[in-house]
Amino acid sequence: MHPLSRALSRNGNNFDLVRLLAAIAVVYGHSYMVQMSDGSVDGALAALGFDGFGAFGVYAFFLLSGMLVTASFDRQQSAPRFVALRIARIWPAVAGGSLVTIFVIGPLFTTLPLREYFASGMTWANLDNFSTIVLKAGWVVPGVFEHNPFVNDVCAPLWTLPLEVRCYLIVLLTGLAGLLSSRWGVVLAVALGVAAFALRLHLSPHLEIGLRDFSEKPGGYSFWPEPFFFVGMLLYGWRERIAIHGLVAVGLVMVFLVFRDTAGAQPLFYLAFVYGVLWIGTTPLLRRFVPRNDYSYGIYLYGFMMQQCLANIAPHLHHLTAALVAAPFILLCAALSWRFVERPVLVWCRRRLARSPGSLGAAVAG
Q1: Cα distances (Å, whole numbers) of residue 113 to 101, 106, 308
Q2: Inter-CA distances, 348 with 275, 340, 344, Å
Q3: Using H for helix, E for strand and C for coil, what is the string for 304-355?
Q4: What is the rounded CA–CA span in Å between residue 105 and residue 140?
């Protein structure tokens, strides 16, 4: 039995392993999208009927993020420090990816003359990382991937980043209100987050506030990622009362299998899924497999990009073969992103925070 509170301490968990597995699941799920359809479907989707490996990878990312981002604010107790760390984690890799898209992927795969390609405003619009991270603006460059099975989009997973940022905003606002320092305060924070999730804001042509249409789900998903973030927040708030046991995880899987043909199959599966993610993230049995470097974000960003490149060259390649061929290129891009972009920025930011938290707070406030 492993208490969740102990697992949330530094180096006391396998969360980097969970993130790596989630990123691999997303890449595998996308292999069915980017290659020419041959009639095969995601194995998990075929077995369950409601979600595939790609969706489960995204859900796992949001679940862990809900726990760890809430823990980050609770540790920092500072809005400027929290915001600085969130920016340092998300933005540099996106900025690097946008440069790779413009100066590497675009020139190699565009059907336009290079002079026309670099003269296009569409090309340089990809430097607007704010729109990418906050406003769901994907990377689309002229003449690139126009004839792919998945048309034009260089990095489809970017759609989840604005959702993540909105969840960060909920943590920030409820943290400033002092709700994240107690169990029932976190419950209230999650209730406010769910209320915000249920609302839909339309800014143009004029401000409108209404209820979300819950029949509209992300393409290829049977659920939404944000509720998993809120579950992660609750798990952090109640971490002292939650213990993770392998037998319980097995029991929840057995319960799902018994009721898999009933109306309650999907919620029972998600319950087993959440608990299973926690077990993988906390059991000492898997500690030896935890990677030294966190390549998960880079795999998440560059996986689809490399898969699109391969689909452009060999669209009829079998999806599993295509995923295996793309794997070394994805890993190389992720390793370079971590080594030369993500880790240096994180190290610099943390050192800066440790040296002069007062001056940083004043700078951010200014």
Answers
A1: 16, 11, 20
A2: 35, 12, 6
A3: HHHHHHHHHHCCCCCHHHHHHHHHHHHHHHHHHHHHHHHHHHHHHHHHHHHH
A4: 11
pLDDT tens digits for range 312-339? 999 999 999 999 999 999 999 999 999 9
Average pLDDT, stretch 304-310? 97
What proportion of the chain, given as a percentage, has pLDDT over 90? 80
For residue 49, the tally of other CB atoms under 10 A from its CB is 11
User: CA torsion sign, 312 to 313 to 318 to 321?
Assistant: negative
- How does pLDDT run across 189-206, given as a tens digit for each residue? 999 999 999 987 665 566
Per-residue DSSP letters for 87-105? HHHHHHHHHHHHHHIIIII
Give one DSSP letter per residue of 149-169, joined into a string.
Answer: SS-S-S-GGGGHHHHHHHHHH
Contacts of 180 by beta carbon, 8 Å cutoff, 6+ apart: 70, 73, 74, 171, 174, 186, 189, 237
For residue 203, what pLDDT is reported?
58
Q: What is the pLDDT of residues 278-302, one digit of tens each?
A: 999 999 999 999 999 999 999 999 9
Q: Ramachandran region of residue 41, left (φ > 0), alpha (ψ -120 to 50) or beta?
A: beta
3-state secondary structure of 3: strand
Give the ranges where 177-245 is alpha helix by DSSP (H).
183-198, 226-237
Could you tell me which of 279, 267, 231, 275 has the C-alpha nearest to residue 62?
A: 231
Sign of the four-CA dihedral 4, 8, 14, 18? positive
